[in-house]
Design brief:
alpha+beta, VC0802-like, 8-stranded mixed sheet, 8 strands
Amino acid sequence: MELKALPQKLTVCKVTSCTDIPLDDELFFVGRTDEELSLVCETANVPTGAIEREDGWRAFRIQGVLDFSLVGILAKLTGVLARNGIGLFAISTFNTDYVLVKEERFSEALGLLADEGYAIARLQ
């Protein structure tokens, strides 16, 4: 299985309105519940109206389209990181999964996953 390191520096934040979301960014995720409106976006484009934010995230994605019948893919990946004390923030889309890791441990996380047999597509 191949993982691709993404170039963006990311922020996880809470916002008050959907109008603040940077819809032109190449990468962003929105989650809304009855309790909050969360946004993951490029750090440079965090809305000024963000009420809380956590900077310093980097992401990798599982390459390709994952069939919904596949079981345990994210669990295996996150298990490697958990055994090594690396926290994460996971996001799933229709096609695949994304894993965010704090920037200071990002290279280490990719190295550990490579040691477990994952192919890592790194940025040039």
